[in-house]
Amino acid sequence: MAVWPRTGKRRRRAAKTAEPKPEPKPEPKTRTSPRLAQLKAVLVRLEPDVGSVFMAFKMTIAPLVCICLIQSTAWTNHYKTNGYLVALIANLALPFLPRGTLIKFNVQLALATAVSYCYVLLAGWCGLQARKHTTHSPEQLKAYNSSAEAVVAIFLIFCVWTIFSLKSAYPSLFFLLSIAGIYAVSTLPGLARASTIKDVINQSSNVVESFLTGQAFGFFVGIVILPRSGRDDFRKAFKGCLDGLVVIVRAHEQCMSVFKARPPDYVPPSPTSTGDEADERAAAATKLQEALKGFTNGVIKARAAAAHAKLELSFGRLDNRELRQMMSGLIDLVPPASGLFAVADMLKGAIDGSLKADMENEARRRRGTDATLDGRDEEEDDDGREQEEEATHDWHQLEEAILQHLHNMSEAIVNGVEHAKLRFHLTADKLKLPFLHRNQEESASAPPSPRPGDENFLESFRGVVERECDVGQGKDGSGGEKLMDHYIRHRPKDEDLSRVTTEKQLDYSQTLLSSLSNELEGLLITAEDYYGKPSRLIIPHLGHLDWLKVFRLNRKTTDDSGVELGAGFRKRDPDHVPPVNAFERVGNYIRLIPAALRSEHAAYGLRGACAIMTIAIVAFLRCSQSFFFRQRLLWALFAIIMSLGRTSGNSNFLLMSRTVGTIASMFASYIIWYIVDQKTAGIYVFLELWLFFLCYLLLKFPPYSSAIFVAVFTTIIMICNDLQIRKIGASKLETQFTVYPPFVNFPYRLAIVLLGVATAYFWTVFPFPLSEHGQLRQEVGSSFNLLGNYYSCISQAVISRLEGSFGDPRDEASPGFYILAARRRIFRKYQTSNTAARSDLGLVDWEFSLGGRFPKKIYGEILSLLDRIASYMTLTGYASRTFQGLSDTSAWRFVDEDDVTRSQLLIEGVTTRMVVLHSALSQAHPLPPQLRELTRAHMPEFSSEIRSEGVAAAALIHGVNSYIVRDINRLTQLVKDLVGELDFTVTVETDGEIPLASARNSRPST
């Protein structure tokens, strides 16, 4: 920001005549402990809303009905002791999902159950054949047979290994695979004792009927009772994203207002005002960053809601094609909005430098008030200072005009957002919009202009955006000057990044707001097309052929479009050359099998198989088989399937949360059972209240879903077990398993569930733990590589636009189509990798650290720097759009000796440096010696004959390069602190015979 001088005759006289005023004492600031702040945040999230309350109530209906059916004699005669399985699966049918997704999920669930049923029948038949082949008489078929037990155990091991491997590879299939695993472990141990094929079928069919019945109850509740529309969810999420965009624009406008330069006659009211202003600026920049984060999270939520909406049968205007267009337009708003993160960071980084400068100027002003200066020196300095004040006053007036221009652009974007919401029918009538209520005098004086919702608003929006690119123009539209042109004429010469000037931020903001307006215009065009269509019946496509898009890029590279793609568009295998015949192509597919077996997902599956067999082996041994079934150790296997984590930190966190949840469920079971004096009707009432509370927590805290589900399972198992004993009779069940009274049964079942949780945790950390900090290092290293690729795409886009070969990015035969497609793909991968890294960074504190302390602060700073660099690169890409329409760009590009086009606007070595940092951090090897700091190219002084638009964009990119270079050099230093540098020099300390400097500088050549 610009810092104005506070010396001169006028100010000095004011300082001499001003009487000193007593300084007010600063009020003491209250401090809030972190724990209390976290508790307040939890209480805020627990604040009830109508939607969550109804959804939580809906989730309790199906399991509660299934538990109530235990009182039916016909029910218990058919399902016997498997009634609790019906209630468990009714809860796992996820009735709170939107209708389309609910149908898809339940179809997949039924298919997974059917496949598991077939697999279990195959395992039972093989075990029965092994029993027959190792038995010499029919009387021995019912006796214990080790061969049958071993065969069924092998089937169980392979099934569990497959399920856990798939859970690791496809986390989105967690519930489907968990239900398949629960079915396998609840059926296979008992089938090993079956002596006839009829027993195998009866046992398998009884369990599968329990699963399908529970699923039917959950599906019926989800479809009929309080059905949830996926399209309504998408509309709410889409409206939230548009509202988030308005919040971003308002926060950015507040930032620019707070950081604007002070008028020339400004005098601080007190010595402490400078620090208060710095706090205000920091708060404004932080608010903008938080708004950007909320907008990005909203877009992610909207994408998930769009996936649900595509699967739904509905009557309206929003078909699948328009859903894709709306999401595409919304995603296109993310890059320019995230680019504003760079402006927020620049503004935030200016606080320290401007605060220091303000304090120095304030000290000089106060010293000038008390000291007696020489009159002749004072007269010599006053003339130059008055000229400086005049120039400062002129710039201050122009800055106010530029801020007004940015304000008008912001208002145009806000009005465009309101118009989009009206056209998409996301808000009420336009007459109810608050910003359209004007008083009569203002309405009479202001000329009529199109309002959001009017037919001609889109043309008005385009005109406002184009007209507001000029500042200082008259009422007749003449005499204007481009904002970027003004920047060139008044370009600051100070290159110290600690003294960030306001005029730079205004140029960056103008570029990003202009890009944001252009992207919003595309969304408004989609809104106009949507508004004119009639309502109709929308049938979802049953066959999604999105997988065909995989072949589109390769197909386009072989046509006659004249576009030749570089090596970065094709993945290379360092161990194999591309196949040239059918035999080699088949061999490539066969190699996928050993590749899958040696992957980390297969290793996780092996851990899961070991965890299951740690307890399940008891069911296959002669001496312990009866103990397994009588004590219902089966429930420990359920807990293992739901509880086994991949990393140690995540497992520590889940172990604690699941332990707390199961213990709370035990105490809740005591209250549910005994507070009503063991009356069945009262038990159901309090059970409903407890399940409602758990389901409400599940909706409010999705990251804790696994722990909450274990608590729900524990409650259902404890209550259902005793209700079944009461209904069937303890005397009839004593032959199958041991019967305990409820006050003994509750802690005993808790111990069994905790045994499964503890076993899952043991096999997570044994024989060696997969730590969060190891995954964090890999994810950060991957972010380095992806960001290097991202800058390579940005550089190629800049070069193509300078050469004039970029073309229309909407045309698949143009280079711009491939460059932008690769840029979007890489940017999405970077966001995924960066999000995973931040998740791992949050779980590092849950690890048991042995040895030295983990450098969490360094990794946190690296992730922040990567986000900033990505924002700067995005800003560079949008600023280079100006070159696409210029006829002469030879001033910013040249051809080197290798006949390769290069540009002074690009930073040499960024991609190479990011790849080097990626390799060093991922492989944990030291950096190469003597890595030089990156530097940007010199910005030449251009003549006035050169087209000013290109010069302005070049100057803006050149300014952004300063921040990219600064942050990459800082990244290099941070990585060097982590992995070190390849340096084998030896320093010899002497008493002065050999100079120490020469010993240190005697580095061998590398």
Automatic annotation (TrEMBL):
Broad class of the protein's primary localization: membrane
Protein name: Putative MFS transporter
Limits of the Putative ER transporter 6TM N-terminal domain: 49-427
A GO term from the CC aspect: membrane
Compartment(s): Membrane
Record field: compositional bias (Basic and acidic residues): 16-30
Superkingdom field: Eukaryota
Domain DUF2421: 767-947
InterPro entries: ArAE_2_N (IPR018823), BRE4-related_DUF2421 (IPR018820), Memb_transporter_dom (IPR049453)
Coiled coil spans: none
